[in-house]
Design a protein that fits this description.
Largest sheet: 5 strands, mixed
Helix content: 40-55%
Radius of gyration: 23 Å
Structural class: alpha+beta
Number of domains: 2
Number of strands: 7
Shape: elongated
Distance between the termini: 58 Å
Strand content: 5-15%
Oligomer: single chain
Strand order of the largest sheet: 1-2-5-4-3
Length: about 300
């Protein structure tokens, strides 16, 4: 039986971990789960016990204890590989009550394998995961060679059904069937959120195509242009997908942060998403305070144009 998630990381980092875990995540086989439940049933006194078949996971809830998830290993999955790796890792910690605690490198391999995973409207899980990832990265924790095959399989399992827009598509294809009712011209919104009226993406677009971004051009730009590209994209998404359709449901900053988290997961892909994720806190420090106010002013002064469907 292996303890995973934030609880395992808290065991490893102790007081150096930035938050208090709220649940337990275990991985093991059905026999281990049955034995663990029998051993702890008096201490836990479950008030609810149910299985989620699609994830092969048992959920244990009790009145005075944190939620417990116990995932049953399926043959041929990355979890089966993980059991073997952790069991044979000399840095694994063995405990009496919580089973095996993976090494920091193993925990990082797991976290890194699903850092771009799409999330629901409540994005708290994204921010917790992202801060964990960055904390470990600052500690120079990385994926060891022996965990790379596991990491690759875990990524495939995680993103198997998750689709992302491609940066090398024309404008019509990029926005086709995205479910958004556009009111204002997308490019003119980009001009509005750019401090000097020149969108950052124009410095790294390929052959003057509005959506086709050039990786080599992007990474040849000064860092302020690279960061501005992410900042402005989040502002445009916040305007189009939060502020216009839903008004003041979220504050300007909440809408922008949510859009930024989507850029780091499901709205973009490839090198741009990777850059945004790895530099997310530098991006946040440069939050554009007045992007929504300026946009409203630019509607009045004619800079922002109405959307015209081709």
């Amino acid at each position: 039986m292996i303890l995973l998630g934030s609880r395992a990381l808290a065991f490893r980092l102790g007081d150096g971990f930035w938050r208090k875990p709220i649940d337990f995540d275990f991985l093991g086989n059905q026999i281990e789960f049955d034995q663990w439940l029998e051993k702890n049933k008096e201490k836990i006194k479950p008030t609810e016990l149910y299985k989620i078949p699609e994830f092969n996971k048992w959920i244990v809830k009790s009145e005075h204890n944190p939620p417990i998830e116990f995932e049953i290993v399926k043959p041929g999955t990355s979890n089966e590989m993980l059991i073997d790796l952790v069991s044979n890792d000399p840095e694994t910690m063995e405990t009496k009550d919580f089973g095996l605690i993976p090494s920091l490198n193993a925990i990082f391999a797991i976290k890194d394998s699903h850092k771009y995973k799409k999330f629901n409207t409540d994005s708290q899980s994204f921010w917790k995961h992202t801060i964990d990832w960055h904390q470990m990265k600052r500690m120079n924790i990385d994926i060891k060679t022996e965990y790379k095959e596991f990491h690759s399989l875990r990524e495939k399992e995680t993103y198997a059904l998750q689709k992302h827009p491609k940066l090398n598509s024309d404008k019509e294809s990029f926005f086709k069937d995205d479910g958004i009712q556009y009111v204002y011209d997308h490019d003119s919104i980009h001009c509005s959120v750019a401090p000097n009226g020149i969108p950052a993406y124009t410095f790294y677009s390929k052959d003057d195509q509005p959506v086709f971004s050039d990786k080599n051009k992007f990474f040849s730009q000064p860092r302020e242009i690279q960061l501005a590209g992410v900042i402005q994209e989040a502002a445009v998404l916040a305007i189009e997908r939060s502020k216009i359709p839903f008004g003041d449901t979220w504050s300007d900053k909440q809408a922008w942060l949510f859009s930024l988290s989507k850029i780091c997961t499901s709205i973009t892909s490839g090198w741009f998403r990777e850059f945004a994720y790895e530099n997310i806190f530098d991006v946040i420090r440069l939050y554009p305070e007045n992007y929504w106010i300026k946009f409203q002013q630019d509607i009045k002064n004619g800079l922002v144009k109405n959307y015209i469907k081709n």
